[in-house]
Amino acid sequence: MSRSRSALLIEQHVYSLPPISNFSTILIISLLLLLTVTSGIAQKKPKPKFGRAVEEEIRMQRYEKDTTAHAVVLYDRGYLSSTRFTFTRHVKIKVFSNAGTSFANFTVNTPAKSDIHGYTYNIENGVVKQTKLEKSSIYREEIVDGFEVYKIFFPEVKPGSVIELSYSHTGIPGEWRFQNRIPVIYSELVLETITGVNYKKTQYGFEPITAVGSNSWIAEDMPGLELEPYMGDYSNYLTSFQFEVSEVSIPQIGYYRQYSTSWEKISEQLLKYEYFGVY
Predict the structure, then answer these.
(1) pLDDT per residue as tens digits for the range 149-170
(2) Distance CA 174, CA 201 (A)
(3) How many beta carbons lie within 10 A of that of residue 204, not counting itself?
(4) Which residues, in sequence order, are CB contacts of 195 under 8 Å at separation 6+?
(5) Range in 32-36, 45-49, 89-93 with the lowest mean pLDDT
(6) What is the pLDDT of residues 204-228, one digit of tens each?
(7) Most buried of 21, 105, 209, 248 (most Cβ within 10 A)?
(8) What is the enclosing helix (H) or strand (E) of 33?
(9) What distance in Å separates the CA atoms of residue 269 and residue 254, rounded to the nearest whole number?
(10) Judging by DSSP bridges, how do beta strands 197-204 and 240-250 pair with one another?
(11) Is pTM beyond 0.90 here?
């Protein structure tokens, strides 16, 4: 494994120092160099445990960086496992007002209803009340054959609630939104490298995103997107990534398939799809 750029820079500085005559001076200089090299590297937020309420979040009255926000995304993390080829999302949202309760409703693409889990947290009589998301609040809708979405409606949501959702599905996500119509305190996306699977990533929006590795990105204190008159669909303006698989190669079983490596290949795939042009 090659050494990181930070390590190489530190070594270059250390090797350029004069012969050691004062150990304390050398130690202080080395520490300053280390701080200088690493100061621009974003730190990942510790992963909260799913299903565990945080009373401080439930008692939160407003988001200080945008006191007009009806709700705020406290935490949103997406993770693609290279061993299981499964993408998992874990998101927590704090609701401040009646207008913010709409953000407790989700539409997600996932092949299995059992992979969806969630809780609503409230303070009642001075204690935390946890309400589980039941299967009766999850509705399956088939768009076309083989393409389904699930609509999720969290129970007992009111001003002051915190909702928590976790879902997973096979494969690479089609999109990841770092930004929303409400502020996002922390958003993280990690896509582990999967040998033989190549995909394209297209970035949209104008808010800053920090890369913390070749396959990991973080956004912090992301402002909510302000809707303007005559604006088209707001999702076109969100700071986000969109993904599409370009090719899959598994030499062990002699499998190779191209998807979107060129416009000609896209046209070829669409013409083979029996529903293309019907809906």
Answers:
(1) 899 999 999 999 999 999 998 8
(2) 10
(3) 16
(4) 82
(5) 32-36
(6) 999 999 999 889 999 999 999 998 8
(7) 209
(8) helix 23-38
(9) 20
(10) antiparallel
(11) no
Edge-first strand listing for the sheet containing 71-81: 127-132, 116-124, 162-170, 86-95, 71-81, 184-191, 216-222, 210-213
192, 201, 181, 234: which is closest to 73 by C-alpha?
A: 181
Instruction: Give the C-alpha separation, 20 to 17, whole Å.
Output: 8
- Name residue 25's amino acid: T
Whose structure tokens read 């090659």? 2
Give the tokens for residue 230.
């005559």
Query: Residue 244, SS3?
Result: strand
More confident: 264 or 71:
71
Q: What's the one-letter identity of residue 176? A: W
CB 72 within 8 A of CB 184: yes
Query: What tokens does 62 get?
Result: 């407003």
DSSP 109: -
Q: Are 153 and 145 in contact (CB under 8 A)?
A: no
Candidates 213, 169, 207; CA nearest to 191 is 213
**More confident call, 48 vs 98:** 98
Contacts of range 9-12, beta carbons closer than 8 Å, 24 or more positions apart: 9/33, 9/37, 10/34, 10/37
Containing H/E element for 25? helix 23-38
**Better-scored residue on pLDDT, 119 or 37:** 119
CA dist., res. 33 & res. 41, Å (int): 14
In the predicted model, what is the mean pLDDT of residues 97-116? 86
